[in-house]
Automatic annotation (TrEMBL):
GO MF annotations in UniProt: choline:sodium symporter activity
Chief location: membrane
Official protein name in the record: High affinity choline transporter 1
Task of the protein: High-affinity Na(+)-coupled choline transmembrane symporter. Functions as an electrogenic, voltage-dependent transporter with variable charge/choline stoichiometry. Choline uptake and choline-induced current is also Cl(-)-dependent where Cl(-) is likely a regulatory ion rather than cotransported ion. Plays a critical role in acetylcholine (ACh) synthesis by taking up the substrate choline from the synaptic cleft into the presynaptic nerve terminals after neurotransmitter release.
Length: 578
């Protein structure tokens, strides 16, 4: 393949433009946040993100390189097709559910990160445990899409994959480093526009190529391969449902999502942003679906790609850049490449900032240095943004199973963090004992179910499992959802059991070593003033909460435990008095 100098120039111009927008956003908002609030401004952008920018940045967070490449691949792969392209509908439903049920309670209570309510109710040690799957999800996701970007660029302009990965990661890390959420949000606006324009410009040219059969015909008839609409085999229904629930429910408990929710100017705006992003995800999926359909409708032996086809060459995951390269004019393929690059950076920067935010606030500050100055926290965030960006880049270059690691970590987000989030926000009376038990049960059930991408053989063989070509058993049973439900109910059962045993006197108070039931107040459990600042919340949006006067089992189980001692906070008391 020839080296395309003009393609390299186009990519450089695009990257410089994105970097310029990121630096401009950082300069424009450098004085945002009062003295002592700069770290929070970096995390949640001063909580003044409007509907336009907020809608764009939340959409761009989901519409990444994995989203558009994965959607095109699912539509293209024979035997799967559009029926298995679950991401557009799954993520859109995830955003709708997040807006309906999760955005308002999280934003109205003035949290700064997704882990705040866990540390508030379950303690800092439990927050640290939940940080592990959250960090793994963000880091492996960033590494996976950096890897995809490098392969895409190497396909179209034939430059070294490692160089393209390093440069892309450096640019995304650089503007995130200087501007935090503001830079990420403003560059997302530009990147989403590039994705939309770049892919839609490419589609008509690819569709009109002489080697492409009418996609309406190939949707339902076998021409070059099986119809691209696809079908769901009766044996695979449970697998399909398991994956769909993982996308829909497991797409909610991500810091990248809640960072946008918590940065909105009000709880109502947070809900509206979620609904706008759900619509945006559907709209942005259409060109990727069409490109996958075009790939399935192409006689590849009539193109410069030649034979065998991408599926036979095991390049189905690269169908989008292959269509851009071989079915579009050169100058059009570069527009499409810019779109893919934009998609990757719009997700990678969000993941890097999310991981850094959780570490700086929930691990460094709330667990170890509660008296850390704002300047100290800013520097911790900057250092960790660089370190996490470098780590994601290293994994993209060195790990052979980045996607396998991301699949496993995203499963852990669904199986461990989602049920914990349900309990901490909506189930009244759960405590640290139940949270730890649910965490461990979910983790064990997921790992013992195996992971073909990592060549991890299962220890539990559920009904319907079968060996793949590598003799690794694949589960048809929806064991991921089973693990999630087990984690959820274990949390509730163990929490209520522990509460009963301690409050009935069956167990002496000294055995409450986590201070989760008997102790009225513990340093392990942080009060509301530690987690939120009164000037970041609208007081009339807060649900009225009264202090707990009794710890008897007969008292009504409410989530008031999470907001005890509000009246003991001078900062909040003074605000309410005013």
């Amino acid at each position: 393949m020839a080296f395309h100098a003009e393609g390299l120039v186009a990519i450089i111009v695009f990257y410089l433009a994105i970097l310029a927008v990121g630096i401009w956003a950082a300069w424009k908002t450098k004085n945002t946040g009062s003295e002592g609030d700069r770290s929070e401004a970096i995390i949640v952008g001063g909580r003044d993100i409007g509907l336009l920018v907020g809608g764009f940045t939340m959409t761009a967070t989901w519409v990444g390189g994995g989203y558009i490449n994965g959607t095109a691949e699912a539509v293209y792969v024979p035997g799967y097709g559009l029926a298995w392209a679950q991401a557009p509908i799954g993520y859109s439903l995830s955003l709708i559910l997040g807006g309906l049920f999760f955005a308002k309670p999280m934003r109205s209570k003035g949290y700064v990160t997704m882990l705040d309510p866990f540390q508030q109710l379950y303690g800092k040690r439990m927050g640290g445990l939940l940080f592990i799957p959250a960090l793994m999800g963000e880091m492996f996701w960033a590494a996976a899409i950096f890897s995809a970007l490098g392969a895409t660029i190497s396909v179209i302009i034939d430059v070294n994959m490692n160089i393209s990965v390093i440069i892309s990661a450096l640019i995304a890390t650089m503007y995130t480093l200087v501007g935090g959420l503001y830079s990420v949000a403003y560059t997302d606006v530009v990147q989403l526009f590039c994705i939309f324009l770049g892919l839609w410009i490419s589609v008509p040219f690819a569709m009109s190529h002489p080697a492409v059969t009418d996609i309406g015909l190939t949707a339902v008839h076998h021409v070059h391969q099986a119809p691209w609409l696809g079908s769901i085999n009766s044996l695979d229904i449970y697998t399909w449902l398991d994956n769909f629930l993982l996308l829909t429910l497991g797409g909610i408990p991500w810091q990248a999502y809640f960072q946008r929710v918590l940065s909105s100017s009000s709880a109502t705006y947070a809900q509206v942003l979620s609904f706008l992003a759900a619509f945006g995800c559907i709209v942005m999926a259409f060109p990727a679906i069409l490109i996958g359909a075009i790939g399935a409708s192409t006689a590849w032996n009539e193109t410069e790609y030649g034979v065998p086809d991408p599926m036979t060459k095991k390049e189905a995951d690269m169908i989008l850049p292959i269509v851009l390269q071989y079915l579009c004019p050169v100058y059009i393929s570069f527009f499409g490449l810019g779109a893919v690059s934009a998609a990757v950076m719009s997700s990678a920067d969000s993941s890097i900032l999310s991981a850094s935010s959780m570490f700086a606030r929930n691990i460094y500050q709330l667990s170890f240095r509660q008296n850390a100055s704002d300047r100290e926290l800013v520097w911790v965030m900057r250092i960790t943004i660089f370190l996490f960006g470098a780590s994601a880049t290293a994994m993209a270059l060195l790990a052979s199973s980045v996607y396998g690691l991301w699949y496993l970590s995203s499963d852990l987000v669904y199986i461990i963090i989602f049920p914990q989030l349900l309990c901490v926000l909506f189930i009244k009376g759960t405590n640290t004992y139940g949270a730890i038990a649910g965490y461990l049960f979910g983790l064990v059930l997921r790992i013992t179910g195996g992971e073909p991408y990592l060549y991890l053989q299962p220890l539990i063989y559920y009904p319907g499992c079968y060996p793949d070509e590598n003799n690794i058993y694949v589960q048809r049973f929806p064991f991921k959802t089973l693990a999630m439900l087990t984690s959820f109910f274990t949390n509730i059962i163990v929490s209520y059991l522990a509460k009963y045993l301690f409050e009935s006197g069956t167990l002496p108070p000294k055995l409450d070593f986590l201070d989760a039931v008997v102790a009225r107040y513990s340093k392990e459990h942080m009060d509301k003033a530690t987690l939120v600042k009164s000037d970041n919340i609208v007081l009339n949006e807060l649900a009225p909460v009264n202090p707990r006067h009794s710890l008897t089992l007969s008292s009504t189980f409410t989530n008031k435990e999470a907001f005890n001692y509000v009246d003991s906070s001078p900062e909040l008391s003074n605000t309410e008095d005013n």
